[in-house]
Every structure is written in structure tokens, then in C-alpha cells.
Amino acid sequence: MISLQLIAVVVLCSLCQVNGYSGIYGNECPVELAQRTSAACQQKRYRQLLANKQLYQLAPFIKGEPIRLLNMTIEKQLAVFSKHPFEISMPEKTYKVSPDFVKIYAFFRKAQAAFGDPYFKNPSDEEPFQDIIKYWMRDKVFAEQRLAGVNPMTLVRVTTDRDKVGIKWTELRKR
């Protein structure tokens, strides 16, 4: 007598073989070790890796573009990033700092200071720095955080004049 569970296992296994990706996951590949990944998932991941290598590579800047970290025009950036459903809706949204967040942030900062103020220093607490909760979108605040070592996201490689990548030393000295 064949049980219902055995029939369900056979059906799920056949789905996995027919789909090639993983059957019950549809068009998505499950998170698993490379040894256990199906050939279709390996090919899909390899294609994604090649596409990402084309997007994110060390290359000379495009002159006149406002975002100098990517080697692509604004139109190409919008085309690339608009493929993801989360990223397509982000430009339409604005960010508002919640009053609850400000209270929680202040509470944890106060608690952190009580446990050993000399060991927990934040650049925004010191005199020359502005409050990052109120003025987080201003360029000056971003620069202060970057110089303090808190925000290293846009560090740019300084190179000699012979190199094609990064900011040239002579160009940096002019600033």
C-alpha cells in the first residue's frame, strides 16, 4: 500500500527534475552548497555573476556625470537599477526621521555613555560636529563623518598621472 506521503515526495521530486531550478521554488534557486546545486541554478548564478562583473568594475570615470563611482551614464544606471522591484520604488519615496527613532537613539547613546564614556566616542557628539539626526542630508555633515572615519563609503583611490583609474594626484592638489 502506497502512502500519501510517498506520493507527495515523488511528485515534488518530479517537479524538481522538470523545472531544473528547484521545482517548488519556481524560478528562484534555493540557498544551498555548490555541490548540491542543480546545473540550471549554477548556470543562472554564473550569468548573474558575469552581469555584475560588467556593472561593477574598476574603470575610468565618465566626465560630466554626477555620480563618479560607477562607470555608466545616468540612463544606464536607471535601466540597471529599475529591474529590481525594491529599487524602482525608492526614488519616489522620501525619508522622514521618526520622533521615536530620535528618542531611542538618544536613550542608547546615554546608556552607552554610562557604561564607559572614554571607550564609546561618536564623532557627532564632539564640539565641531553637527547633529547627524537633524542634518544628515547636508554635504558638510557627510564630509565631517567621512573625515572622522565613520562614513568611508565614497573613498576614492588617488593614483599617479600615468594611471587611468582613480583621482590623479595633480588634479587633487588643485582642489
From TrEMBL:
**Recorded superkingdom:** Eukaryota
Q: Where is the signal peptide?
A: 1-20
Q: Which UniProt keywords apply?
A: Signal
InterPro entries named among the record's database cross-references: LipOase_C_sf (IPR036226)
Q: Which Gene3D superfamilies match?
A: 3.10.450.60, Lipoxygenase-1, Domain 5
Q: What is this protein called?
A: Uncharacterized protein
Instruction: Look up and give the organism this protein is from.
Output: Desmophyllum pertusum
